[in-house]
């Protein structure tokens, strides 16, 4: 695993994160994250990953960084790392349906039946803005059931 | 921008998420499996189904990043303004420090030239007063030993202690007075060159003028310091309108009373007690790698600790010892040591996660130094 959770300072909230220790604000963090994501959009995934891994090290309690990092891992086909990242998102933001869908799909691709459970949670989302995600999850579930 | 902070809607590219994915069609999947087929086949089909979903769309940070948990609190407008003012001040101080370093060789040169000019003036006064036109190394020695004029004596001594300056004067003004340079050299009179005392004085004046001109030219090359903004007020009373224990409204910065003796402010006391520490200056690094910058930061912090130890020695050897000053230094040392520990921990963390935060690292190190100063 590229990031060992046990090494992250402040992950569980019992100690301050590096961002708190060094006075790095949300705006600063997002600015750096945007730079990293811009690299990702340009196809410079390795560089983007370094930036986002750094941000997660700075503040492992931000679901946003985990989500962005998970997307990069996913693009780089680092499935296990991506699953860990999206799991972190869900732990901190249980209503993040998109992360849940991505997690479910990745789990299924890895042969983990927990993916079905994740997708079922997505399918239960009643928020209208997530209708397309719900439809996608139901579609995959139907195929999976057929299988 | 990919983060829409005005809404709560994540700007993940949902359209691409759905449109780019080919529809999952049961016709593309083999018909349901019989119960007797093994689970390996089931797993393969599930994977096939999942392959139809191309999740990768735009790279974004969802709105949940807006939760500022784990970050330092956002500064208020007043704090931000104060931070910006402080940053400008720090930058101006750093710029002045750089200018000071750049000017240092020039200032040293000017100082030497001015000393030469001064010595020239003093010794020529002596020459004038004696009606002499020649000054040998022996005479310089004699002047240093016997002159009753302190400034002449001092100038002679200075020349003896700075033979390079003597040589320079001799070379530049060899047509007038100074001769020798070593004991073996014979006296050379300016009369040999210019044919008379009066002519010698003219030449001497020309040399003095040339020397002054050279000094002025050098002075013109000195880079001026930039203006350093005043220290921003740490109190928020100005922005909030609340008043603390300060003076009456309308005289926020005026003297409280002309009869009270000027009292040392806490900033002045700190500057005095932590004089060595303050002399360490702001952090800067020319390193091009994150590790290099971090090493520089640690080295800088170590310098701060060393300087504080000097301050501590100075404070604790005073008679009587001011315990408040000692405690101030000890507190500062504790802060710095905490920062050093954090930096070391950060380095360790960095190595363990094998992540290189690149540019951020420099910013982090500088933030750390700024915050602890």
Number of helices of chain A: 8
Number of domains of chain B: 3
CATH topology of the largest domain in chain A: Serine Threonine Protein Phosphatase 5, Tetratricopeptide repeat
Main beta sheet of chain B: none
- Give Rg of chain A in angstroms: 16 Å
Protein chains sharing the most extensive interface? A-B, 74 and 67 residues
**Shape designation of chain A:** globular
Give an overview in words.
The complex is a heterodimer of chains A (147) and B (373). Chain A is mainly α. Chain A has helices spanning 18-21, 26-41, 45-58, 63-75, 79-92, 97-109, 114-123, 131-146. Chain A folds into two domains: 1-93, Serine Threonine Protein Phosphatase 5, Tetratricopeptide repeat (Alpha Horseshoe); 99-147, no CATH class. In chain A, helix 2 runs antiparallel to helix 3, helix 4 runs antiparallel to helix 5 (79-92) and helix 6 (97-109) packs antiparallel against helix 7. The longest helix of chain A has 16 residues, at 26-41. Residues 1-41, 52-56, 173-203 and 234-259 of chain B have low confidence and may be disordered. Chain B has helices spanning 14-19, 39-51, 77-130, 137-146, 150-161, 163-172, 190-194, 197-220, 237-240, 266-273, 275-278, 290-316, 323-353, 359-372. The two termini of chain B are 35 Å apart. Chain B is mostly helical and 373 residues long. Classes of the chains: A mainly alpha (147), B mainly alpha (373). At the A-B interface, helix 1, helix 2, helix 3, helix 4 and helix 6 of A face helix 1, helix 2, helix 13 and helix 14 of B.
Question: How is the topology of this model organized?
Answer:
The complex is a heterodimer of chains A (147) and B (373).
Chain A: H1 18-21, H2 26-41, H3 45-58, H4 63-75, H5 79-92, H6 97-109, H7 114-123, H8 131-146
Helix pairs in contact in A: 2-3, 3-4, 4-5, 5-6, 6-7, 7-8
Chain B: H1 14-19, H2 39-51, H3 77-130, H4 137-146, H5 150-161, H6 163-172, H7 190-194, H8 197-220, H9 237-240, H10 266-273, H11 275-278, H12 290-316, H13 323-353, H14 359-372
Helix pairs in contact in B: 3-5, 3-8, 4-5, 12-13, 12-14, 13-14
């Amino acid at each position: 695993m590229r990031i060992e959770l046990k090494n992250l300072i402040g992950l569980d909230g019992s100690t301050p994160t590096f961002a708190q220790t060094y006075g790095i604000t949300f705006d600063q963090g997002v600015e750096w994250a945007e730079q990293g994501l811009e690299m990702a959009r340009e196809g410079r995934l390795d560089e983007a990953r370094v930036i986002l891994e750094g941000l997660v090290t700075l503040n492992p309690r931000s679901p946003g960084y985990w989500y962005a990092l998970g997307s990069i891992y996913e693009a780089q086909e680092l499935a296990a790392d991506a699953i860990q990242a999206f799991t972190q998102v869900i732990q901190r933001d249980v209503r993040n349906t998109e992360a849940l869908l991505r997690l479910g799909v990745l789990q299924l691709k890895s042969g983990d039946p927990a993916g079905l459970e994740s997708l079922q949670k997505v399918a239960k989302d009643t928020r209208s803005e997530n209708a397309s995600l719900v439809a996608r999850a139901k579609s995959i579930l139907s195929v999976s059931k057929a299988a | 921008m990919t983060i829409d902070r005005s809404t709560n809607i994540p700007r993940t590219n949902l359209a691409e998420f759905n449109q780019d994915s080919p529809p999952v069609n049961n016709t593309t999947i083999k018909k349901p499996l019989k119960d007797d087929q093994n689970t390996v086949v089931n797993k393969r089909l599930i994977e096939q189904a999942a392959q139809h979903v191309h999740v990768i769309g735009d790279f974004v940070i969802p709105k949940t990043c807006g939760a500022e948990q784990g970050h330092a609190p956002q500064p208020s407008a007043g704090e931000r303004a104060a931070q910006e003012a402080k940053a400008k001040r720090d930058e101006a101080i750093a710029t002045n420090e750089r200018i000071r370093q750049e000017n240092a060789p020039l200032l040293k040169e000017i100082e030497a030239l001015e000393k030469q000019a001064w010595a020239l003036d003093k010794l020529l006064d002596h020459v004038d007063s004696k009606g002499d036109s020649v000054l040998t190394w022996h005479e310089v020695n004699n002047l240093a030993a016997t002159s009753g004029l302190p400034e002449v004596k001092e100038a002679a001594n200075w020349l003896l202690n700075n033979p390079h300056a003597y040589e320079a004067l001799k070379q530049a003004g060899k047509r007038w007075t100074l001769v020798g340079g070593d004991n073996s050299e014979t006296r050379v009179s300016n009369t040999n060159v210019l044919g008379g005392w009066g002519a010698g004085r003219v030449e001497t004046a020309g040399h003095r003028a040339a020397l002054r001109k050279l000094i002025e030219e050098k002075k013109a090359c000195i880079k001026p310091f930039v203006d350093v903004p005043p220290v921003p007020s740490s109190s928020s009373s100005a922005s909030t309108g609340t008043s603390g224990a300060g003076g009456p409204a309308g005289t926020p910065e005026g003297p409280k009373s002309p009869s009270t003796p000027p009292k040392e402010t806490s900033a002045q006391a700190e500057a005095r007690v932590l004089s060595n520490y303050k002399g360490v200056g702001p952090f800067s690094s020319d390193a091009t790698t994150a590790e290099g910058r971090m090493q520089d930061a640690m080295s800088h912090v170590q310098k701060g600790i060393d300087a504080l130890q000097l301050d501590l020695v100075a404070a604790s050897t005073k008679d009587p010892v001011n315990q408040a000053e000692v405690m101030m230094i000890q507190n500062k040392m504790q802060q710095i040591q905490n920062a050093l520990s954090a930096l070391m921990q950060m380095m360790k963390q960095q190595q363990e996660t094998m992540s290189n935060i690149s540019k951020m690292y420099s910013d982090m190190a500088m933030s750390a130094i700024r915050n602890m100063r």
